[in-house]
Amino acid sequence: MSAGTVLCRFDELVDGEARGFDPQKGGQDTLFGVRRGSRLYLYRDLCPHATSPMAWRKDEYLNRRRDRIVCFAHGAQFEIETGRCLLGPCIGQSLQAVAHAIDDRGNVRLV
Amino acid sequence: MKILGPDLLVFGVDHVPACCEFLIEYGLTPVGVTDQGGRFEAMDGTGVLILSSDDPSLPPALSSGNTIRETIYGVQDAQTLEAVGRELSKDREVRRAADGSLHCTDDLGFAIAFQVTVRKPYAAAATLTNAPGSPPQRGPNQVAVDPDAQIRPRTLSHVVFFVPDAARMEAFYHRLGFRVTDRFTGTGAFMRPEGNADHHALFFIQTPPFMQGCEHFAFHLGGPSDVIQAGSRLVAKGYQSYWGPGRHIFGSNWFWYFNSPMGVHVEYDADMDLHDDAWTPREATIGADASQLFLMQHREKWSPGGPPPA
C-alpha cells in the first residue's frame, strides 16, 4: 500500500462504527477502521489466527454493543483501541495497526 | 447404533438479528423465529437454532467464547435412542428432556443430545449432466441454467470441531458407532455415523484448549452448480467468502465457506462420497495439496472481449 493513498474523508465515517477499505481495488477489503470520536483505529483486515478477512459482511467488524472488534471466522474478540485479542483462537496476539493521518483537507491518508 | 448425523446445531450468540439475517440469506427457512431467535430449517427439517447468549434455556457456554452450545443428533428410532442412553449412562449423567430427547456432555465437555430424528422424506431434483460418451441426462431443449433458481439447503451435512484432544473425541464417538473414513495425521479423523453413508458427519481438528468449539458446519446443496450459484449470490450481497469455491479430496465434496455472525464458518457443500464398512481409511498430512482438488476464486462478473463498443 502506498503512502499518501486517501482512504476516505474522515467525516464520512460514522462515529462508533467500522468500515472496510480496498485501497488496491482488488475486490476484497484489506484494511478496516473503527471511528471513535475524533480518533480512527485502522488495522489490516487480517486475523492473526485465520490469516483471513474478518468481517461477516461488508463493514461488519464489530460486536452488537460496538465495543469489540470480532473476527467472524472463529469469533476472536479484539480491543478496539489496541487491536489486542482478548478471547478466542489468537488470544494474546494483535491486529496489525496501519499508520495513517488526517490531512488538512480532512482526508484519511496512509502514511 | 443407527445415528443418522446432526439434526440441530444450537448457538448462543451476541447478535441474534444478524445471525437470523445471515441464515435466511444462506437459504434456510425460518420456523417460529422472533426477536429472540429461533430455528432455521433445511428441506428435511434439520437445521440451526439461534438464541441469545444469555438465554437461560441454553447449556453453558464454552470458556473459549465459541458460540456452539449443543449438537443434537438424530437417531433412527426409539430403540436406538434407548441404546445410546444405556451406553452413555455407563459413565455420565444422561438427562431426559420433556420431549424425550437425551442430553449429556461428551468426553471434552461439548453439550450433546440425541433424539428420534426429525429428518423427513423430501424430493428434490438432482443436477443433470450431459457427458459425451454416456447417455444424456438432459434431453433436447432441457436447459440447465436458471439465473433465478431458488437454491435451498437440503439437509445438514456435517459439523467440524476444534478440539484439545482429537484422539479422545474419536474414541468417544466410536463408542456410539461412528466409523473413521479418513484421517489427517496429527489433526484428526473424519467420522460417519452407522446410519449415514456420507463420508463425514463429524471432523475433528486438534487445537490448543483455548480454541475449543465449532469451526464450521455445512448443509448439502443439490450439486456443484448450486454451490457456486448460491455462494456467488452471497458474495454479491457483500458476505465474506473464506475459502472456495473448490472441491475437497477427502469426501470429494464441493465446498464454499463463509464467515458468519455466529463467529463460525458456514459452508455450502455438494456431491459428497458415500462409504460403507468395506472402505479402508486413507491418511494424509493436512495442507492445501491434501485438502483441495482445486480452488477457484471469485472475480467480479467479466466476459472475454471487454465491454461492447460505445
UniProtKB/TrEMBL annotation, chain A:
<keyword id="KW-0408">Iron</keyword>
<feature type="domain" description="Rieske">
    <location>
        <begin position="5"/>
        <end position="90"/>
    </location>
</feature>
<dbReference type="InterPro" id="IPR017941">
    <property type="entry name" value="Rieske_2Fe-2S"/>
</dbReference>
<keyword id="KW-0411">Iron-sulfur</keyword>
<dbReference type="GO" id="GO:0046872">
    <property type="term" value="F:metal ion binding"/>
</dbReference>
<keyword id="KW-0479">Metal-binding</keyword>
<keyword id="KW-0001">2Fe-2S</keyword>
<dbReference type="InterPro" id="IPR036922">
    <property type="entry name" value="Rieske_2Fe-2S_sf"/>
</dbReference>
<dbReference type="Pfam" id="PF00355">
    <property type="entry name" value="Rieske"/>
</dbReference>
<protein>
    <submittedName>
        <fullName>Rieske (2Fe-2S) protein</fullName>
    </submittedName>
</protein>
<dbReference type="GO" id="GO:0051537">
    <property type="term" value="F:2 iron, 2 sulfur cluster binding"/>
</dbReference>
TrEMBL record, chain B:
<dbReference type="Pfam" id="PF00903">
    <property type="entry name" value="Glyoxalase"/>
</dbReference>
<dbReference type="InterPro" id="IPR029068">
    <property type="entry name" value="Glyas_Bleomycin-R_OHBP_Dase"/>
</dbReference>
<dbReference type="InterPro" id="IPR004360">
    <property type="entry name" value="Glyas_Fos-R_dOase_dom"/>
</dbReference>
<dbReference type="InterPro" id="IPR037523">
    <property type="entry name" value="VOC_core"/>
</dbReference>
<protein>
    <submittedName>
        <fullName>VOC family protein</fullName>
    </submittedName>
</protein>
<feature type="domain" description="VOC">
    <location>
        <begin position="155"/>
        <end position="271"/>
    </location>
</feature>
